[in-house]
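Handout, section B. The chain below has 422 residues.
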Amino acid sequence: MKVFLALVITLCMRQNAAAQEIRLDSLWAKQGGVAAMTFTPDSKTLLIGEDGEEGQVTVHNVTDGSQRAPFFLPPKAYTDFKFTPDGKYLVVSEQGKVVLLNPQTFDSVGVIDNVTITGNVAFSDDSRYAVIAGMYSSVVVIDLLERVVKAVLYRPSSYVPDQTHPTETAPYWNGKVSFSPDGKYIIGKYENSLVRWDWGKTPTQQEIIIGDIGNRALIGFSPDKKYFVQQSNYIWDLIEKKQIIIEGMQAVYQENNYNTAFSLDNKYLFCVNEKLQVNIVSLEQKKVLYNTEKGAKEIAVSNDNQFLSYRGVGNRVRTFHITWDAVSVHSEEENTIPLILIKPQPGNEFITIEIETPKSYTDCKISVVSSLGAVVGNVYQGDITNGKRTFIFPTTGLSSGQYTLLLSYKTGTISTPFIITK
């Protein structure tokens, strides 16, 4: 069932005649919490792991948001999922284990047990090995072919900031790790240094690459491992072993900007600044090319560099088509999509629907759809003026389960999932 219509808004940042211009065309939006999201290797599909009680992962056509059947992961038990570079598996980091899923059917095809770390997933370039690292924890290396844990790399999770109070500790913000290009080493943060581990050796000792980088978590590595990013957007050149300055972006402390993405050609960085805007950064020009709306968190970029998705204002996942070196330039206000809040969650005898719109809409329709795609209730039909509107919808005739509220208007459709418990 197609639950979204294409919503095209041309957005861009005007540069001088010699500078690069980027245009983002807004395709569709989806309301709801996000635990993880990733594009399929062919860049045609976006997976959104919802941060809800049912562990639903929705599967969307990138260009119009239409959905195929969702699949389910243990709710609130997984922290990340990613496709291997060769596209053979979707790898899920769950509590106590790593699960391998078929990339087409999303059925489980393998499990690696006794994985003591739950966290972010990264892969060796040949797709044979995965490494799992938590924000504060040690690191686990897994052989996806033999389906066993190959190494556990220790790193301390806390320190004593004041020796006069030895029982009071503070956390080491460790963050993500990566394989070196040859796969021999794991690169990551140990205490306040960037180090590498020769993970094939026993015992494994860390070797300092760059000392004294500060207690800021590592939040991303470029595919070629030339660059790494720390929380608050401290960007480092790993080859030259020095921090680099980006024009238009300050390295300002912001504890929530823990997400980055890189283009596969290593030319662009997508990160979140202190205002919680997504910055698109040219690593060649070392300057910010574009800023999005405020309130952004999770970020995903397709392998072909043509699509960007991020969770923005009101837990709304927005998906854009990226036009690099845009020729025609005009600007339009970005935040024109209505915000929807449903409460209580879960609902019982009724739900309250609050809709806030930045402008007025005509010919609107608000309906409730079951998980099978059938319309099971009509809430409202007519015009919606700008500002806030509240609707009460009785759910006495509906059974327990997950439903979707659809707000349709002339230029698009917004969907918001909700749960009914009887």
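Note. The two ends are 26 Å apart (CA to CA). Compare this with the example in section A.
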